[in-house]
Amino acid sequence: MSSAAVVEVMLTAKLDEDRGYCLDIAGGRGTKAPVERGLQAHTCYHYDNSILEDQGFDPALVPGGQFKITYFDVCMTVASLSVGAPLELAKCEGSESQKFSLNGNGQIVSQVNPELCVTVNATKKKTGRGGSPPHVMRPLSLETCDAAKKDYQAWKLNSL
């Protein structure tokens, strides 16, 4: 897949990972990623000069509120619009649970409840087996938007 056709959804703060964190399908890499595991924040792969299939989002759909992973034809989804809800993936259907906005301040908010932001967990993380240095993963959830949590709630679209 051409990297020009997709972008990463990248946390603006590097936190503890110099390569940055990107939205990523949990539990696998590239074309072998298990969609049913949902999304996590994971070391961005762009240091390999490519955006892998499990981190590649369609930039043309983001302004319309859809975060679609092109290769797998699935969209970012939440099971519930409540604090603590994990970020899942499902067939793109345009339901309210799949409608998000990337605000000017970098927050990705639910269009139904714009008080809820896609948030990287500040304390939980694990180190992966691959990459050198090893990759780092953190859980994602919907949390109350809060300027004090900017480092964990501000995102940007990154193309190569």
CATH class: Mainly Beta
Class derived from helix and strand content: mainly beta
Strand content: 25-35%
Span of the ends, CA to CA? 13 Å
Q: How many E strands?
A: 12
Mean pLDDT: 92
Shape: globular
Q: Count of helices?
A: 1
Major sheet characteristics: 5 strands, antiparallel
Can you offer a commentary on this structure?
2% of the residues lie in helices and 32% in strands. The protein has one domain: Trefoil (Acidic Fibroblast Growth Factor, subunit A) (Trefoil), CATH 2.80.10.50. The strands form four sheets. Strands 2, 3, 9, 10 and 11 form a five-stranded antiparallel β-sheet that branches. The protein is globular and about 40 Å long. It contains one helix and twelve strands. The chain is mostly beta strands and 160 residues long. The model has no long low-confidence stretch (mean pLDDT 92).
Provide the fold topology:
Elements (H helix, E strand, L loop, with lengths): L7 E4 L9 E5 L13 E5 L24 E2 L4 E5 L8 E5 L8 E3 L5 E3 L5 E5 L5 E2 L8 E9 L5 H4 L1 E4 L2
Antiparallel strand pairs: 1-12, 2-3, 3-11, 4-5, 5-6, 7-8, 9-11, 10-11
Kindly summarize this structure in a few lines.
The radius of gyration is 14 Å and the shape is globular.
Which labels suit this protein?
single chain; 160 residues; mainly beta; Trefoil (Acidic Fibroblast Growth Factor, subunit A); 5-stranded antiparallel β-sheet; 3-stranded antiparallel β-sheet; 12 strands; globular
